[in-house]
Task: structure prediction
Amino acid sequence: MNDLLNFVKPKKEQYMTATFYARKPLLTSDYGVKFRYKKLDPKRQTFEQPIQNLYTEGSVTAISTNAVLPFVVGSYVYLQDGGLYTITEIGTHEDNSAVHLIFKNCIDDEIVLRLLEVENENDLEDAGV
Result:
């Protein structure tokens, strides 16, 4: 019955699971850290980006997460859809509330990652902790 209810009235935001790797995983014994994310529209809305959006249509994606991990440009993320991606940009989406007047980092802030798909040469599957 629950499956029917989920189908009829889906949640507004669906969270998926990914695995973060500080360096490119080469062996199945390389372990990463799991975190939850939601997909975003990979296209940017700024003026200078429409041409770049056309060139990188299929291999770029964007996700947001609340995970507190050491995300660095050049590190790797294995998404739930089975793709291995490298981080090309890191940004934050801040909730502009009164909490930011008191605290520098708020738990409601989301980290936005732009990812570029890379070839998974060894067909490594997810091996997260």
Summary: The longest helix spans residues 2-8.
